[in-house]
Structure formats: C-alpha cells, structure tokens
Specification:
Strands 1, 4, 5, 6, 7, 8, 9 and 10 form an 8-stranded mixed beta sheet that branches. Strands 2-3 form a two-stranded antiparallel sheet. It is built from 6 helices and 12 strands. The N and C termini lie far apart (38 Å).
Length: 217
Amino acid sequence: MKIVNFAETNSLVSQYLMEMRNVEVQNDPLRFRRNLERVGQIMAYEISKTLDYKSVEVTTPLDVAECQVIAPKVVLATIFRAGIPFHQGFLSYFDYAENAFVSAYRKYKEKENFDVCIEYLASPMLNDKVLIIADPMLATGASMELSYHALLTKGEPAHIHVASVIASQRAVDYIAEKFPREKTTLWVGAIDEHINSHSYIVPGLGDAGDLAYGVKE
C-alpha cells in the first residue's frame, strides 16, 4: 500500500492542520469546517495527478483544441458526520464525480468498549471506478474497514484512495493489512503515534464531528 503523508513536506496542509489542532482556534466551527474542506481540496488535487487521462477535442471560438480529461469514473465516499465538510472539499474539485455516503458510529457497551455499527449506505455501482473514501480521523481503522466492506456490496473498484486528515500509526498498519495493498493508496495530513483508552488519536485534535457541528448528546 502506498502512503502519502503530507507532514513529510511543508505545505498549506501544515498550516490548516495546526489551526484544527489548536484549542484556541478550533472552537470556531466555521473555521474548523473550512479547514477540513481546504485539506480535502489539496488532497483532491494531489490525487488527480495520479489518475489516468484521455484526450478529447473541444471547439474554441478560433479552432479545435486537444485537452486532457480524467479517464476513469470517480466516486467520492464519506462517513457521516465528521466527513461531510472534508468530502465537500473533494467534491469542489472532482465536481463531476458520483457520491456515496455511509453512516458508521461507535455503539458503546461500556465506557471504553464499543462496536462500530453501519446503519446507512447510499452508493452508485463501483465496478472499475476510482473510489475515494474521505474520513478526517483514522483512529483504529475499524470504521473505515466496515465502511469499505459496505461499499463493496456495490461492486469492486479499480483503485481505492483512503483520505484522512490525521491517522494513528495503528490505523495505518490496520488499513495496510485489511485493504488490498496493490490497489490502495492512503493520503494523510499527519500520522500520530498513539491512541488513548477511548480510541482517540493523541495528540490528535479531539472529536472532529463535535468541532464541526456541535457536541452530540
């Protein structure tokens, strides 16, 4: 599995990630959502450079021009609810893409013991398409794996791009083990070493869904 870690080179992703981590800045939900969207836009651009392209001819006011356009069909998938602004960043660049949505949540049995549950799936057929799954926090990898398997009920994609703002090293290793290595690329803004007893990434940034949309009860 190929891993692209944006923290290994300086870019605007570093600036936006700093703001999302900073407790003095992240309490502004509008800015937090916007920063998720911006990171999604940058990742979308970088992913676009890895895709296959084909030539098409278009008529200009003066002549005919040969242009390059993306050859495969692209499907943008996200996991509710934290993934919505991140997904919007991808959609603003891949504006002709089809879209898929998965509802995955933690169902707690005890304070630090939970199962990941899938309740909702809306997706086009995926056969031979490029699938981009965007979820800002990749803590254990369990939600991403279950969402991926739910999406597979709609067909087998040609390539899978997993995109996250922050991932734990444990989750990176888990995705490498559970996803097809030869056709999976992981894009991540930063990789943090630890998760705590509640399975939150440390230092991380907290609960991305709560920061984007308010604390859930």
